[in-house]
Write a structure and sequence with these properties.
The chain has 166 residues and is an alpha+beta fold. Helices cover 35% and strands 26% of the residues. α1 packs across α3.
Amino acid sequence: MPHSALFAATLSAFKAQSWVFREVPGMEVIEADFEAHHTKVPLHVQVYGDPNIASVVARASTTVPKTHQIQVAELIMRTNKELNLGNFELDWDDGVVMFRVTNIFPHGHQDERILASLVHAAIAEIDRITPFLGEICRTPKGELILLRVTDLMKRQDLLPPAPASE
């Protein structure tokens, strides 16, 4: 089965960035692992050729115990409220936190820069939330009632450093 133009552009974008990736056989899917400031970020890019949609999903390396899911759900909800692009999700059954960003491209206009930007955004957002997830998950179960997510989110020491200007 031939690749869609959008998947070809996605492959080209990954190659242009010199990113190491794996193609999933029989699907228009790329998987990759990125080293970010706080964590390693597994990433999944799926292309839907006919509607010309690319969906990028990055996964947090921290699995959330059921005992801590309410506080993590609050963190995600409050974080999503501030986002302009994409959203965080919590798989309630598995305790997996993901960041998903999707773009619908006009037919005939598969922009590799946009594809690379979607990947960068997903990695950056997972990296940004990772230390906050860690703080929640390290809180002993009996102390969760004392944890104020709004106060946790104000902690600047948990944010990665701002990128150096070029």
